[in-house]
Amino acid sequence: MAEGSDAIQALIAQIARLPGLGPRSARRVVLALIRRRTGQMAQLAALMADVADRSCACIRCGNISESELCPICADPARATGELCVVEDVADLWALERARVFKGRYHVLGGTLSALDEIGPDELGIPRLLARVEAESLSEVILALNATIEGQTTAHYIAEALVPTGVAVTGLAQGVPIGGELDYLDDGTIGAALRARRAL
Amino acid sequence: MAEGSDAIQALIAQIARLPGLGPRSARRVVLALIRRRTGQMAQLAALMADVADRSCACIRCGNISESELCPICADPARATGELCVVEDVADLWALERARVFKGRYHVLGGTLSALDEIGPDELGIPRLLARVEAESLSEVILALNATIEGQTTAHYIAEALVPTGVAVTGLAQGVPIGGELDYLDDGTIGAALRARRAL
Question: What single string gives the DSSP state of each residue in B169-183?
């Protein structure tokens, strides 16, 4: 009886496994939930069961969806011929929040990683190539993270796409909006200087 | 379609309301859950519904319980005559983890607060006094937080307990185990010096 019943301890252990949470914050969350047990906690449990039950991956792009095709793939207005390749659904959400991209996505679900034994087949890169061949695309934008893993994966995909003849682009690198040079790392300042543009 | 379906957005909004979480961390949590939707997510939803359904407050001490009396109040071995008054169930759990207190608890559920209109009646202090009178207690330990609110509440309760004749104690204040004087605040150093003891 250190931390409530077995069920409460199991709940704390499950919540402590979520990203950004640990045993201490999980205890706080569970206590806050139990305090609101008839309101928020019951609602949250129902909502979570509902989302777990209804979510699946879009068969075309890998986005989270409630039907075979996600709303973006199902929307004919987004057949612009531009395909944006992202690592993760979180990146897709970030791009959608920015409201600047009007085309469709392809979610890799990770990056190439020799250590984790994730090769091109595990990332579904053959499936991406087949998609580029099948849909009449004008441009593939590799919006992968500016990390070593992301850029290695972007290079691999760019090479693999050469035979298809599609235009392949990547996100610009430089000073972020609101960024102060004094606080930026050398790599970012170097990239921004190399990619300088006429004003 | 910025962040998935309406259900996913509702789930993110609910999780963002939990203590220590915000919109960004809630998005990360929800994406991690959806990735494990058939395993952890379904389990967590079921566990949460179960805990929400079964939890109630112990009618005697206010601890979280699955029955009328919590396991501590129901355990005759814990009728030591010592009653430990805490602000919150989190504090009760912290004391139980320390495994040093063998008596029973009384959970106030907060502190006196003129701003939030929480007076003695809202905190159930009359109920605490009745309990002290009814059970033959030898000591009441006021284990409230060492904050202004906690100490104000402790003073109020100590005064109210004078007529019952029970011994009233509070936690010792001083240097925490592993604490370095250089990093401690003036108040703690002052308290530790005033309460110095012979070695």
Answer: EE---SPPTT--GGG
